[in-house]
Specification:
Length: about 160
């Protein structure tokens, strides 16, 4: 009997099932759902403007981007987990949502899908959509760090997505 490979990109319901089976905390899942909503809206707008992008990839990566949020290096751990589940494309997008060392070109989002997930995550505080300014003020307060260059990078991505 021929084995039919599963899709390289999980559906929304598969993503939610993966989050639940992973015991990802409820508040993190709610954050991921809010990020996904923002990401979908941006993807739809870009697609309607004639930009060719993979919306299914945007949805999956935005839903799964913080799957390992409770772990120390949550981005690397999440990307590894998603890759091990057979979703390498989704894993690659997840790797690029970090602000950590954003000045390093290797870590920067380059594709539309990566930029959308990166930016949508920066617009959601908890499960609320907020401005970049509000989100970065909250991050600065919570972690007591200077995020000036990360904020500027995020503004640059915003400009690229909304020009």
């Amino acid at each position: 009997m021929l084995k039919i490979p599963k899709s390289q990109i999980p559906s929304k319901s598969e993503c939610l099932s993966i989050l639940t089976k992973n015991k990802t905390p409820f508040n993190v899942i709610e954050h991921c759902k809010a990020v996904c909503k923002v990401a979908e809206e941006i993807a739809d707008r870009l697609i309607s403007n004639g930009i060719n992008l993979n919306k299914k990839l945007v949805i999956a990566a935005s839903l799964l981007h913080d799957i390992e949020r409770e772990k120390k290096d949550h981005i690397e751990e999440g990307a590894k987990l998603i890759k091990s589940l057979g979703f390498p494309k989704v894993s690659e997008v997840i790797k690029k949502h970090s602000l950590y060392k954003v000045e390093n070109p290797e870590r920067q989002p380059k594709t539309y899908e990566e930029k959308i997930v990166f930016y949508a995550d920066k617009r959601v505080k908890g499960s609320q959509v907020v401005s970049l300014e509000e989100r970065f003020a909250d991050l600065k307060k919570r972690y007591d760090i200077d995020l000036t260059k990360e904020f500027e990078f995020s503004k640059k991505v915003e400009k690229e997505l909304f020009q």
